[in-house]
């Protein structure tokens, strides 16, 4: 991640927090509630698009007031990369995202709980990476098979900017979606065999990742 991109991310987070503080006084003071959401995009992605990618994710949101929501998201992702003829790798592990959402909607009725929000997350993943085989093509020696490195555990860290909404379709039952742009901060794997996939983030070789979640949730 470049220093310029990192500065943009930090500036966006600070602006979001500042707007929360300014607008919190406008809340109409409804009762706090906890909403648990289950992501539908990750498990269905493996069924419809890529059977080698498996994922499960859940989200918890706590309404501090009408403007501010504290958020914790966690799950498990796995990717088996079989596209290359030179190697086959697998990465799997758990991830956690912590942050806040700022509700952009203005309420006039305490029964209204639909939200359209922007948010920020700080995220991390603890994951394993292993290679089943590594083949190197050489013009002189031909195809050479290398001994794959042992399976190791790594950590990846990134920040996120999120835009989404939640709609109450039945009493206490919500459906929603969000789009998240992720910015990689650091990956502890600095070896020659680079990580290809970070659970919860995506392509480890890219400094920016984009993902969309669809969810169903219940408010308590």
Structural overview:
With 220 residues, the chain is mostly beta strands. It has one domain: Porin. It is 13% helix and 58% strand. An eight-stranded antiparallel beta barrel has the order 1-2-3-4-5-7-8-11. It has a two-stranded antiparallel sheet with strand order 9-10. The chain is elongated and about 75 Å long. It starts with a helix and ends with a strand. About 4% of the residues have low confidence.
Number of domains: 1
Number of strands: 11
- Helix content range of the residues, please? 10-25%
Q: What's the average pLDDT?
A: 82
Structural class comes to mainly beta
Please tell me the CATH architecture by its name: Beta Barrel
- Percentage of residues in DSSP E strands: over 45%
Broad shape: elongated
Order of helices and strands: HEHEEEEEEEEEE
At the first level of CATH, the class is Mainly Beta
Number of helices: 2
Please list the strands of the largest sheet in the order they lie side by side: 1-2-3-4-5-7-8-11
- What name does the CATH topology carry? Porin
Low-confidence stretches: 20-28
Keywords:
Porin, elongated, single chain, 11 strands
List the SSEs and their pairings.
Blueprint: H1 3-23, E1 34-39, H2 41-48, E2 53-63, E3 68-81, E4 87-103, E5 115-138, E6 142-146, E7 152-170, E8 173-187, E9 197-198, E10 202-203, E11 208-219
Antiparallel strand pairs: 1-2, 1-11, 2-3, 3-4, 4-5, 5-6, 5-7, 7-8, 8-11, 9-10
């Amino acid at each position: 991640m470049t220093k310029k991109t990192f500065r943009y991310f930090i500036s966006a987070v600070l602006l979001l927090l500042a707007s929360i503080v300014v607008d919190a006084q406008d809340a109409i003071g409804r009762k706090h509630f906890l909403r648990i959401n289950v992501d539908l995009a990750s498990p269905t992605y493996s069924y419809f698009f890529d059977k080698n990618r498996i994922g499960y994710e859940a989200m918890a949101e706590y309404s501090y007031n009408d403007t501010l929501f504290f958020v914790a998201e966690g799950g498990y992702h796995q990717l088996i990369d079989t596209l290359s003829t030179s190697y086959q790798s697998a990465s799997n592990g758990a991830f956690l995202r912590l942050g806040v959402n700022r509700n952009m909607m203005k309420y006039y009725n305490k029964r209204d709980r639909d939200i359209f929000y922007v948010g920020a997350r700080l995220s991390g993943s603890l994951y394993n990476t292993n290679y089943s085989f590594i083949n190197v093509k050489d013009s002189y020696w031909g195809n050479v098979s290398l001994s794959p490195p042992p399976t190791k555990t790594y950590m990846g860290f990134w920040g996120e900017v999120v835009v989404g909404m939640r709609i109450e379709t039945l009493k206490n039952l919500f459906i929603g979606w969000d789009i998240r742009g992720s910015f990689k901060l650091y990956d502890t794997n600095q070896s020659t065999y680079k990580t290809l996939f970070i659970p919860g983030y995506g392509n480890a070789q890219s400094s920016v990742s984009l993902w969309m979640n669809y969810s169903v949730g219940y408010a308590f």
